[in-house]
Amino acid sequence: MAAENAEKTAPVISREGSTEIHAKTAGSKAVKIILITVSVLFLFVMLVMPLITVIYEAFRKGLAPYLEAISDPDTVSALLLTLEATVIAVVINTVFGLFAAWAISKFRFHGKKVLVTLIDLPVTVSPIIAGLIFVLTFGRQSVIYPFLESIDFMVVYAVPGIILATVFVTFPFISREILPVLDAQGTDEEEAAALMGAKGFTIFRRITLPHIKWALMYGIVLCAARAMGEFGAVSVLSGHLRGKTVTLPLQVEILFGDNKFMPAFAVSSILVVLAILILIVRSIVEYVGKRKKGENSQS
Amino acid sequence: MYIELRDINKSYGSFKASDNVNFGIEKGKLVALLGPSGSGKTTILRMIAGLEKPDSGEIEIDGRVVNGIPASERGIGFVFQSYALFRYMTVFDNIAFGLKVRRMNKAEINERVNGLIKLIGLEGFGKRYPSQLSGGQRQRVAFARALAPNPQVLLLDEPFAAIDAKVRQELRKWLKDMIHQLGVTGIFVTHDQDEAIEVSDEIIVTNKGRVDQTGTPIDIYRHPTTAFTSSFFGVTSELSDYMSFRSFDDIGEYDKAIVRPEFVKITKKNEFQKYKSSAVEGVVRDAQFRGNSIEVTVNCNNSTFSARRGLDEPAVEIGEKVDVFIYRIFVTHGDDVKLLKNNALREETVVI
Amino acid sequence: MKTNKRLIPGFGISMGITLALLSIMVLIPLASLVVFTAKMDLSDIIKVITRPRVVASFEVSLLTSFIASVINAVMGVILAWVLVRYDFPGKRILDGMIELPFALPTAVAGISLTSLYADTGWIGGLFADMGIKIAYTRVGITIALIFIGIPFVVRTVQPVLEKIDPLYEEAAGILGASRTRIFRKVILPELRPAVFTGFGLAFGRCLGEYGSVVFIAGNQPYETEITPLIIMSELQEYDYPSATAIALVMLAAAFLILFLVNLIQIGNSKILKGGH
Prior knowledge:
The structure holds three protein chains of three kinds. Chain A is mainly α.
């Protein structure tokens, strides 16, 4: 705690006294202007223009065709499926993230590093490979396929496959955000509480949760964003059955492939709005979280 | 004995943290576990608390063996070195936590917590968060939190380590008074001998996982029984060959000859020195003002050690030749220690 | 030494839930990949991955990912520098925007970049006048991959840059070093591990990227066909052995990159902490 504080505050304190040198290394005004211009231009071309394109193309033919495009039954059912997969992914990964982070940060056991690596694995493999491994596990050539068929539970080219793929690609998102916070916090407070006879859930709710609140929210936001937009893995497992196994990103792909550009961008615009919302929430969560942390660590 | 440890052993891998530890503590005493880092003192404290389990041996508190009893049911309060205050709870909630866990009713909790806040002198701070307190205040809150459920034993892990020197002094006295006033049995861990001497009723010296010596502070200071305690306590210097100083008995083989500043008398050549015949000549290497005395370091018979001179005595200068008389020497051999008195003193008693 | 299994409750249940979910979601699916691979012949695997079309896809994927990651490494350092060291209006928005490629679904990015860089698009049109095609070429793929990789280097370099103690720069400044010299000799060495880490992460992500690339790539065999797309088409033809064989190569590449990134981080912490 003390070391953490020292690390956080020291640069701030010393920075004030050294603005001159900083300005010196930061360079002359010309360099500053050039670098800012380059950055702004780069981000404008790479990030902003694609967004403008989406909105422009979506409303190119006016509001009525836009509304018509986004109220298309296939699009609506795609939206519902996306929400379903997203909610399930967030719930499962939150449960997983909390328990995994608790186990990893509060106890010592062998193979901890291996466990952490395995949890992180899903984000390091290509989404296509993620899809592939579920096809191999549940598809026609799998050993459990006859069993799945007998109970009429289809995974590949069906909704369960889409949900599995979505959970998989977002698997570590929440544990990853919580873990560093819990690690930095240590186990002192929990030990003290346990020593006074508090039970597991009480310790978690009263002692641990306040520490990880913001990290947890941030993790949920990231998880939701990624779950909503997942394309590759879902694409492998979906089979593209319109109105049944098509999520919003897949609907975009289908429409674009059919040369229905305007509707494709109209559907995309929903996702763009959601993405921007997520970025705003992320900024707020991060800002408030940092401020809280600042308040709590000043002595 | 109120608390008793019998044949306690504990290892972490190949590291032996406790090696056949035995001791007992009387009710109401404030005891210091003193030793250098890695000596196993914290492990002992944590085993008494139930934070660690001994590999073998028994721990008894108030007549019952507590080995199988979880930490929360041992009737102990624990003050962590870092305090481990709940950072997201107010001072009030921190102190109340242990009571809430015990499902005490609200009115009782309020009364008890407010009483404790008053006891620790932090009235009006109940709504503050730990981050808004000074180090000393945090320590008091940790103390109150540990005391809230009325424990019979209070365990403190390096309670003053995180506090700056000035406040530390004040808190030491406060803690000592408080524990005696409340009548609980206290054990605290420290690596600071001054702290142990000043605060505790009794000291348990630990070294390399073993209990080296137990006794009152004055006892241990005056009569160290092991080589370790004799060199650990006080400001000590080693003499390269004690027989080169007049007039000590030759005990034959030995490892170290240790002197403390108060064992040494330095006098200027023109000053009166009663035992001049037993003094040897030394050269002043350094003289430092220490607030209430002057610490004089001398080089004498190939050894360097120091002594104190009063502020009212004539000043000595660096390079000055002085008379050095040594009253006592601790001589260690293996684990044993012998106190050698200068024979000049004995002769005098015989004469008189 | 400080933690005690028995004191803090919940080890059994949290470990149980963690391992159960990990098994269902990650271990069993991965095991099925291993089982499926074990049933295949090594010679068959080699035959599949040495097919000219597959080899060409490796080349396309590696080349475009590499170029995109290098560009992102350079731009990432500039962006991090601008965001940490300068103050200007709109900085917070710029900072928030960096994360957009994480938040925006890749399919949306894909179709949007495609229409932007197509010959009829706003940017593609400008280049088309000069006779340069972007969409449906390797340049198009690279642009999609730059988009995907932007956040990685910025977000690894930014915290390091924030933490660099100005004292070092002051010290160098007092010693009379020039601005560029301070940057090269004092700041850059501090940033280097972070830049490599960010580069590695971006590179790994680019190799596996599918959604944003398929639309703009044109998917011409031997020319603009990326490896993930080949796996996808094998899967659509139910040729699981071929898909698996190619996937193994990609997995190997991903792990190699991850390994190198870890190596850099370990090496760096050795310098800073002197061992362990």
